[in-house]
Amino acid sequence: MSTGITSQGILDFHSHILPGIDDGSRNWDMTMEMLQLSWDAGVRAMVATPHFLPWGHRLRKEKVLALTAEAQERAQRDLGIDMKIYPGEELYYHSGLLQDLEEGRALTLAGSRYVLVEFSEQASFREIHTAAASFRRSPWTLIIAHVERFESLYREQDLQEILDMGALLQSNAEEMERGFLDRRKRWLKKRYDARQITFVGSDTHDPVKRPPLSDRSLRWFRDHLDASYREALLWDNAVRLLEQRE
Ligand SMILES: [Fe+2]
Predict the structure, then answer these.
(1) What pLDDT is attached to residue 228?
(2) How far is the CA of 7 from the centre of ligand 1 (A)?
(3) Which residues pair with 142 in a beta bridge?
(4) 90 CA → ligand 1 middle, Å
(5) What ranges do the domains of the chain cover?
(6) Can you give the pLDDT at residue 2?
(7) Which residues, other chains included, contact 18 with Cβ-Cβ below 8 Å and sequence gap of 6+?
(8) In angstroms, what is the span from residue 83 Cα to ligand 1's centroid?
């Protein structure tokens, strides 16, 4: 069990733990294994963020909410762990996304005004900028999922422009676990140094290949960040938003 990384436990902001709804967990056994591994690493709360694709169907939102509640109940009942699980979605950006939100087809994070959005990895700066501008005019706040994947944001002034429009950034913890300092990791390290990342998640899809948070993936955060930023990044920022205290 991890101790000392944060005072209250860790919140995993991005996960594909709900069974049979996207390319993440395939069944309840797998979901339970992912929840137990998370718990063992010190995770006490998670956001379930299955992929929302533009061609998805109507009944899905109710299904996400029901599966999230069921996952929390089963964790308590079958594993004896008190894992808090919030409902959400990882929304794939497309031109109709704001309409999907307006008409209630797409889920925000735990019913808040914050939305986790992924772009195509080839998305140009112009596309992301256009999206950020339209979110700025909307009731919703854009959180860019695994921001390190988008090389079109690697220019300092470009990223700053997106941040100035009110977008927030989520990063995947596993990126900092790799031994070698490649371009992506170097860029991301600078973003942490500048306190530009607000949320961290595992983006776990299964127990092994794309695993939950672990002592290994959390080590970098323990060793490189000061206690107050670490606390904000791994717990406070997310809990404030999900409990709608801001
Ligand atoms: Fe994801």
Answers:
(1) 95
(2) 26
(3) 115
(4) 6
(5) 10-240
(6) 46
(7) 24, 25, 31, 48, 50, 64, 67, 68, 71
(8) 20
State the CB neighbour count (10 A cutoff) for residue 23: 11
| Cβ contacts of 156 within 8 Å, gap of 6 or more | none
What stretch of H or E contains 37? helix 28-40
Map residue 45 onto helix, strand or coil: strand
Whole-number Å distance, alpha carbon 129 to ligand 1 midpoint, is 21
How many whole angstroms from 56 Cα to the centroid of ligand 1? 16
Tell me the two tokens of residue 105.
Answer: 């087809």
Q: Specify the CATH number of the domain 10-240.
A: 3.20.20.140
CA of 23 to the centre of ligand 1 (A): 9
What per-residue confidence (pLDDT) applies to 8? 87
What's this model's pTM, rounded to 2 decimal places?
0.96
How far is 65 from 171, CA to CA, in rounded Å? 24
Any residues with CB less than 8 A from the CB of 7 and at least 6 apart, and which?
Answer: 231, 235
Distance CA 217, CA 38 (A): 11
Which one-letter amino acid corresponds to residue 181? Answer: L
| Per-residue tokens: 106 | 């797409």
CA atoms within 13 A on the CB side of 108: 20
For residues 36-51, give the mean pLDDT: 98
Express each pLDDT in 97-138 by its tens digit.
Answer: 999 999 999 999 999 999 999 999 999 999 999 999 999 999
